[in-house]
Amino acid sequence: MFVSTLLLSTLLSLSTVPTDTLRQEQLDEVVVKSNSARQRLNQIQTGAEQVQIKDLTASPQLFGEQDIMRSMQLLTGVKSESDASSSFQVRGGTSAQNQILVDIAPVYNVGHLAGLFSAFNSDALVSATLYKGLLPAQYGGASSAVLDIIGRTGNKSELHGGASIGLLAAKGTLEGPIVKDKASFLVTARRSYMDMFLKLSPDFRHNTLYFYDINAKADWTINQNNQLFLSFFTGKDRTAIDEMVDIRWNNLSASLKWLHHFSGNSYAQSTAYYSGYQTDNGIDFMGMNIWFSGHIRQVGFRQDLHLNLGRYVMETGFQTALLNVKSAEWKQVTLHEKEQRRAWDNAAWVNVVAPLTEKLDVSAGLRLSLFSPLGGSLYYDIEQDGTIGWYYNYGKNQIVKTHTTLEPRLSINYHLSPVTSIKVGYTRTSQNVHALRNQSTSTPFDRYTMSSNIVEPEVADQISGGVFVMTPNQDYDFSVEAYYRQINNVLDYRDGKSFASEIEIERLLLAGKGKGYGLEFSARKNNGKLTGWIGYTLSWSKTKIDGINNGKWYDANNDRRHDINIVAMYRLNKRWTFNASWVYNSGQAFTAPSGKYMIEDNWIYYYTERNGYRAPASHHLDVSAVWSKQYRKRTHQLVLGIYNLYNRYNPFLINFEDGEYGAGTKATQYSLFGIVPSVSFNIKF
């Protein structure tokens, strides 16, 4: 709660091909087709959203920044963490249960400025596929969802570029040939300049608030059968308030891919990758003096083989990676503690896509996950009261334990007619990197741990089914999907514990089970001057852990009953496009004190029911107008937008405070945004 309040006060003070198979990058260029109603109807995988960046980023955006992560939140079955967060939650899972891949490499933190901006520059991306829990066998490592993002390659024949300047940030892009028609490069960079405005104010000149990110990609066509891709991404944030608070976090990922084509549309893809996330924070405020850091680092290799066997398509491969996770390192006055561990993660899979009849298509697969925590760090047993019972000293690189999980996958698409299909599916997924957080939103103070001798992998089983219908001319399509998701070994904090209670993270947590279920309704208009969609999600998310809430089922802190998204895009003519979106979220579950008592003149709150209260509903209307004009080889674009048009103050944080002289307790709602206008100017050449 302290961290959320701190971040809030900081911000307020400063502003009072279809992928049922492995995706394929063509040898000459990336060829992208729109995700039409026909594709959505024919796609075997239920719960999959294949989208293009230009479609996602057309909707109105906060501060005028095109943002893939915020646009993802407008899809049916996908929820935002809050108005201030670019992270998303899928079908009862948390954002920490998602895996986000950028050109194969995983990225663990996806937000700038505590989530106000996405870490991904849309100018560097071309498309993305979101799997809402039902994954083909070639995907794993997440118990909720996988977002697979493809980076854009540069132009091999001509030099092109672009620049954009908005209210809070500016960005630029440069791409072109290294060797004409053989090799190309693409570089994009973005930086905020809020820190420059702070220097102009006597009250804030000693504060720092900025972010930047850089994407780069190079590709080389060796010959007609072989191509290399080198991708790089880095981003950094820093928020500092005088000498009281200094919060920093950064991402770094890179991948090198070799794509080799065989005859008959079969190919192999070999990828070496690295991913790193680091957080480094210091607080000297209200009697608290602490420095806290943590990291996740992963280096790995992945081999994919795509075999086109006539009517059948087989995906098979393996992946191996070494992980290094520092759960926490901190200094409190003279106390210096650290917990850091390593692990070896392996997986192998096979997935077959088969049209069994003219009307029946099947995708079936099996994934084997082997996760082995390694020695070289302390391991221990935990007693029922959370104390350490026994320490174990394993040698460096000695396997402590191997967690083996078999994950079957099955999706079926039955075509009732050329315009109607029924889809059903079942998937088991597992996750071995876990996050612990005191609140429903992600922050730089989240603590991470891995499966160990005590912590078991999170294992989720999901079944889903739906009906998909389109009109004969594909102008409209409609869908309704139902799902049920059960997860074992889900983690939560013990009562009364927080991220800094103990350095040994396994002393803070308890494991239990969770479940999520719901309905998703969607209607889309695909053609004409007016396009867009309406989505409604009805969902439940619950948790049951012995030792929490008296062992009874309780609403998860991301439980939210109703979500409505309405998105409209109107193309008036060649120069003007108008966009609007309206979002409604019913109140989110949170924990409130049941009473309080006094110890040594201090009021102490106590809690009896976990997440037994509801925040007020959130809703906002966002609009934008885009003007474009072509000047020979240059394109000029002006984007005008208003976020939260009718100035609704939505709950971001609810804090509990004593009444006068300690009598009674009052709940105070803090809101992050009222109405926010924006303007940005873009130029491309």
From TrEMBL:
- Superkingdom per UniProt: Bacteria
Q: Which UniProt keywords apply?
A: Cell outer membrane, Membrane, Receptor
Q: What are the record's GO terms for cellular component?
A: cell outer membrane
InterPro entries (alphabetical):
Beta-barrel_TonB_sf, Plug_dom_sf
Location within or outside the cell:
Cell outer membrane
Is the Protein transport keyword given for this protein? no
* Keyword presence, Chloroplast: no
| Name assigned to this protein | TonB-dependent Receptor Plug Domain
